[in-house]
Amino acid sequence: MIGMLLGGSLAGLFALGVPIALSLALASALALQAQGIPLNAVVQRMFTALDSFPLAAIPFFILAGCLMERSGISLRLVAFARAMIGRRTGGLALVTVVAAMFFSAISGSSAATTAAIGTILIPAMVRHGYPRPFATSVQASAGELGVIIPPSIPMIIFALTAGVPVSIGDMFIAGIVPGLLIAASLMLTARLVSQRSGYGETQSAGPSGAEADADASKADAAAETRSIDDIGSPRETFLRAGLALLMPVCVLGGIYGGVFTPTEAAMAAVGYALVLGVFIYRSLTLSQLYAAFSDALVASVAILMIIAAANLFGWVLTINQIPRAVTEVFLAISDNPIVFLLMVNLLLLLIGMFLETGAAIIILGPTLTPIAMAFGISPMHFGIIMIVNLAIGMTTPPLGVNLFVACQIAGLRVEQILRSMLPFYVALLVNLFLITYLPALTLTLPSLLR
User: Fold this and answer.
1) First vs last Cα of the chain: how many Å apart?
2) What ranges do the domains of the chain cover?
3) Which range has highest mean pLDDT (266-280, 281-295, 310-324, 431-445)?
4) I want to staple 114 with a disulfide (CB 3.0 to 4.6 A). Which of 105, 210, 357, 405 is the partner?
């Protein structure tokens, strides 16, 4: 009865467009009231959920990404990717994926990656003969790397809310091979489509490498899209982007080397981003610093409120033994882990179409992860499966955030790019299948580094 009340009220609130955090809190409060539990438990559980030092890693990683974005890093990364790949059919489409992969290792956010790289490369691809829907599709697909390549905000959320011991550092390392695999498959897909259709065969002349270097020091990426045509040698572009690329190396190396905890690593990343933007690149002005802190504050508050409300929701589920009932349902259907993972993938792909990634992890992670462990599945592997599933949801209608960000940049409607998205959906689903049923892709690297 309580389960039906929780599910029905939550679905109704979502249908009315009530914000996720408020929907979770109201549905939980309604269930508690129906059971006669005092409503002060709502505040107590939400406060307890946020009273966690590791949770501080989330706002600090978000701030580090915002500072890097405002420092004009995205153009430097695009220039480096362009110099590495060179000019060839489909070259700019490949640059889009590689640049998104680089920026993902800095931002930890899918939407930020799509916006920062798409602002530069979608207009550039259109100027070089790529159809606007195809250019938008490449960027929307590549943007999902923002939550798979570490450091990743959803990985931190999963590690803190799964209800079983999972190391944030292990989650970061576990995401490296799946992230590289997805990036490679997206590049292959973009290359094959470009070759078949002759996209990007004509290259236009652009400014000199010196001009591109001057442009790279500017913060307004939208005005810099003309500077990627002639950007100098790989060595020159690496020197301009190398310091930014060092940040994820320092973060992961520091965590696994025992130099600092993930939370301390996030704080170090903020300090590194400030030094880089203010003193080395000299591209962070006071107004840009204010904008970066404002963006980070808004994003952090939204995520932390969802975490607090979802913790309350999960507590209500637990005291009513709903997770145990769900486990029994899954076990009654099949005791085969292959069948279980297939059902979970279908569920998460559907949920990802309608629910924000962090909220989906917080709501479903504590319920599904113990079930996965009952089937003998590593919680680290299961966490990556969840994140990859929900990352695909960022590229699918009706609520795929990457689609909306990329379409806004390109000036298109979502339905105008869905046909161009089909080859990338196939590539992403193939990767999901491989990551799901080949756990070595996820677990080998963390085990080697222990």
Assistant:
1) 46
2) 33-449
3) 431-445
4) 405
Q: Which of 85-94, 272-281, 301-310 bottoms out in mean pLDDT, i.e. has the lowest?
A: 85-94
Share of the chain above pLDDT 70, in %: 91
What is the SS3 assignment for the chain?
CHHHHHHHHHHHHHHCCCCHHHHHHHHHHHHHHHCCCCCHHHHHHHHHHHCCCHHHHHHHHHHHHHHHHHCCHHHHHHHHHHHHHCCCCCHHHHHHHHHHHHHHHHHCCHHHHHHHHHHHHHHHHHHCCCCHHHHHHHHHHHHHHHHCCCCCHHHHHHHHHCCCCCCHHHHHHHCHHHHHHHHHHHHHHHHHHHHHHCCCCCCCCCCCHHHHHHHHCCCCHHHHHHHHCCCCCHHHHHHHHHHHHHHHHHHHHHHHCCCCCHHHHHHHHHHHHHHHHHHHCCCCCHHHHHHHHHHHHHHHHHHHHHHHHHHHHHHHHHHCCHHHHHHHHHHHHCCCHHHHHHHHHHHHHHHHCCCCHHHHHHHHHHHHHHHHHHCCCCHHHHHHHHHHHHHHHCCCCCCCHHHHHHHHHHCCCHHHCHHHHHHHHHHHHHHHHHHHHCCHHHHHHHHHHC
224-237: average pLDDT: 59
Question: Cα(125)–Cα(239) distance, rounded to whole angstroms?
Answer: 25
Predicted TM-score (pTM) of the model is 0.83
Q: Averaged over 374-400, what is the pLDDT?
A: 91
What is the C-alpha to C-alpha distance for residues 280 and 273, in angstroms, rounded to an integer? 10
Amino acid at 381: H
Report pLDDT digits (tens) over 33-66.
Answer: 888 888 888 888 888 888 888 888 889 988 888 8
